[in-house]
Amino acid sequence: MRSLTERKHQQQVAVADEVVKAYGRRDNAVHALRGVSATFSAGQFTAIMGPSGSGKSTFLHCMSGLDPVTSGSIRIGDLEITALSRTELTKLRRERMGFVFQAFNLLPILTAEENIRLTGRLGGRRADESWFATIVDSLGLRGRLRHRPAELSGGQQQRVAVARALLTRPEVLFADEPTGNLDSKSGTEVLGFLRNAVDSFQQTVVMVTHDPVAASYADRVLFLVDGRIVDELSGPTRDLVHARMRRLEG
Ligand SMILES: Nc1ncnc2c1ncn2[C@@H]1O[C@H](COP(=O)(O)OP(=O)(O)OP(=O)(O)O)[C@@H](O)[C@H]1O
Questions:
Q1: Quick check: keyword Transport in the entry (predicted)?
Q2: From the CB of residue 6, how many other CB atoms can be counted at a distance below 10 Å?
Q3: Pocket of ligand 1, candidates 58, 174, 207: which has the most ligand atoms within 8 Å of its Cβ, to mutate?
Q4: Is 81 contained in some domain?
Q5: Which residue lies with its CA nearest to atom 13 of ligand 1?
Q6: Does the beta carbon of 58 lie inside 6 Å of ligand 1?
Q7: What confidence tens digit (pLDDT) does each residue in 3-30 have?
Q8: Would you state the pLDDT for residue 128?
Q9: CB of 32 closer than 6 A to ligand 1?
Q10: How many structural domains comprise the chain?
Q11: Is residue 37 part of a domain?
């Protein structure tokens, strides 16, 4: 009999099929992605790693509909997103995706609570108060809700960003270098919260990172080199990721 984890992982939340992304035209074209295929399953935490310029951010932007693909297809749930209009993509991102960025991207004039509730408000959804409370408590933000971002540490600001991303119960949470601006203690905390969202709430997470320690929180690591996935590592540890990266960077 299959374990719960195995069954859970069978549900495909996001799928990239032969995605090509070229910037510019003809002679000047830069091929950031050269035929990337990957499947992201429900409740799975994937880290994307690779040398600088290998296409990690481009891949995340294409998967989340921020950047149009040159060819290939991307599916979120049962929706093919490469054919959607700008308005449909905005709605999709707001309702079905969560985002955490390196630079936190909180609105400075809003309190932590207002920032957390913002995406749901924009989507016109009524907040689920018990889910709000669960997230706020699990991220240790209860005592900080009335503070503005400038009154919070970097780690607290990123926890607010994670709470904002989780509040709409997104099908997939995309994180681009979420610990890039944090000291190692705050970074460890944020990674622990992302891991907890996967383990406790079956959140699907796709995270770009340069850091082998951050990648070790994931269930698997996909390695990009020159716009192609060249390797995959399941059950990553810091040392295994580090060794694999050393080999790729040659
Ligand atoms: N808007 C753009 N216009 C032209 N070229 C671009 C654009 N965005 C990215 N590129 C190019 O595409 C390639 C992949 O870039 P990308 O930012 O995805 O790499 P990355 O792996 O995320 O890099 P890093 O780790 O340095 O952030 C690079 O050669 C980059 O110069």
A1: yes
A2: 10
A3: 58
A4: no
A5: 32
A6: yes
A7: 555 554 469 999 999 999 999 887 888 9
A8: 83
A9: yes
A10: 1
A11: no
Query: Token match 């698997």: residue?
Result: 220
**In-domain check, residue 3:** no
Q: Is residue 39 part of a domain?
A: no
Sheet containing strand 30-41, strands side by side = 30-41, 12-23, 71-76, 79-80
**Domain ranges, residue 234:** 44-56+87-249
Q: What is d(CA 196, CA 171) in angstroms, rounded to the nearest whole number?
A: 16
Residue 40 forms beta bridges with which residues?
14
CB 30 near ligand 1, within 6 Å: yes
Over residues 66-111, the pLDDT tens digits come to 999 999 999 999 899 998 999 999 999 999 999 999 888 999 999 9
**For the chain, how big is the Rg over CA atoms in Å?**
18
- 42 Cα: distance to centroid of ligand 1 (angstroms): 28
In short, whether 55's Cβ falls inside 6 Å of ligand 1 is yes
Q: How far apart are CA 80 and CA 102, in angstroms?
A: 28
- Closest alpha carbon to 76 in 59, 92, 56, 57: 92
Q: How far is the CA of 35 from the centre of ligand 1 (A)?
A: 15
CATH of the domain at 156: 3.40.50.300
Task: Please tell me the distance from the alpha carbon of residue 82 to that of residue 141, in angstroms, as a whole number.
Answer: 37
In the β-sheet with 205-208, what is the strand arrangement from edge to edge?
97-101, 172-176, 205-208, 45-49, 220-225, 228-234
DSSP string spanning 121-157? HHTTPPP-HHHHHHHHHHTT-GGGTT--GGGS-HHHH
Which of the listed residues 19, 57, 248 should we mutate to test ligand 1's pocket, taking the one with most ligand atoms within 8 A of CB?
Answer: 57
203 touches 41 (CB < 8 A): no
